[in-house]
What does this fold into?
Amino acid sequence: MKKIQNIAFGLLFFVVVLMAAIVPKAHADEAHLAVSYSTEHLNGLRAGYRWTDGPKFLPQSWFDLIGSPRVHWEAAVNTWVNSRNSHDRINAVTFSPVLQWSLTAGSQPLLLEAGIGVSLLDDQRISDRELSISFQFEDRIALAWQYDPISKARLSFGYSHYSQADIKRPNDGLDLWVLTWHVPI
It folds into this structure.
């Protein structure tokens, strides 16, 4: 059963990457690819879309209180593998709002990004991490550098945490360092 789930999520991962190349500009503003590493010997890949300047469901005055960030919406597919056992793999589909603040001005600004979203995993265990349920929250924070002023492509380095807020125990969670390449499409 695990092998079938891995194949299904592998196909879904491939479809997301393929769609990033062919989806019209009106549907997705930015594609991203990421690599991740965990001290629990997990290595990962992520591919997804970001809809920039997405709708804000809260009053603008609330955003003004926290520095008027831009609001983005992001969907992605993740896969993580245990570097000690390549057959030990877990996959996730995620959806998250991402808030983005400019830290510097100019044509190559530094940006701070943060978000809390939801994830659906295809298994509840990887390596020695017991997640208990497939539903997880995705918390993240990253520092991004817009290195290309023309295309607005950027690199970000950040930290992501996946856990289910103790809905069920045990709740070991996953902690990952993530390097992401963002490319407007």
